[in-house]
């Protein structure tokens, strides 16, 4: 199964999700990330955080959804709701879900405050991905509506409740 983590710029959140997922994923599951308007480079703080967590960063780059290595079976948008950010809508056929994560690249303040914003995004994505991977994936892939319900539930439980407006 191919999962696409999608946001607008593909420099922070979707890159973090791709790396985390692939670090934890069982055999047969692969994540990729893309943006509708990629900035062309991965945010250095994203790479530093992943390296600090012992997650491989080799091969991560900012890319467009027009240049995916495979067609996604699942698309999870990770754009933030609180800032009124508009998420792109993936044009191809796939099961879709939304996990709203605030963009750490937009964080301002001290170095510690900016690093904390990246850490929060990382932790939120990690918890969502761990929850997803704890599900009976073999059974859920045979039932797309149940899989979609679980992905939506994770989006509500892990992201909307932990980041109230």
Describe the structure.
This protein is α/β, with parallel strands linked by helices. A four-stranded parallel sheet has the order 2-1-3-4. The N and C termini lie far apart (about 35 Å). The radius of gyration is 15 Å and the shape is globular. Helix 1 (about 15-25) packs across helix 3 and helix 3 packs antiparallel against helix 5 (about 145-160). It has helices at about 15-25, 45-50, 110-135, 135-140, 145-160; strands spanning about 1-5, 30-35, 75, 95-100. Helix 1 links the parallel strand 1 (about 1-5) and strand 2. The mean pLDDT is about 90.
- Strands, total number: 4
Structural class estimated from helices and strands: alpha/beta
Enumerate the strands of the largest sheet in spatial order, edge to edge or round the barrel: 2-1-3-4
How far is it from the N-terminal to the C-terminal residue, by CA?
33 Å
Rg, nearest Å: 15 Å
List the uncertain runs: none
* Biggest β-sheet strands, sense, barrel: 4 strands, parallel
- Basic shape: globular
- Per DSSP, the total helix count is 5
Mean pLDDT: 90
Q: What portion of the residues fall into strands of 2 or more residues?
A: 5-15%
The ordered H/E elements are EHEHEEHHH
**Can you give the helix content as a percent range?**
40-55%
Secondary structure blueprint with pairings:
Layout: E1 2-7, H1 13-24, E2 30-35, H2 44-52, E3 74-77, E4 95-98, H3 111-133, H4 137-141, H5 144-160
Parallel strand pairs: 1-2, 1-3, 3-4
Helix pairs in contact: 1-3, 3-5
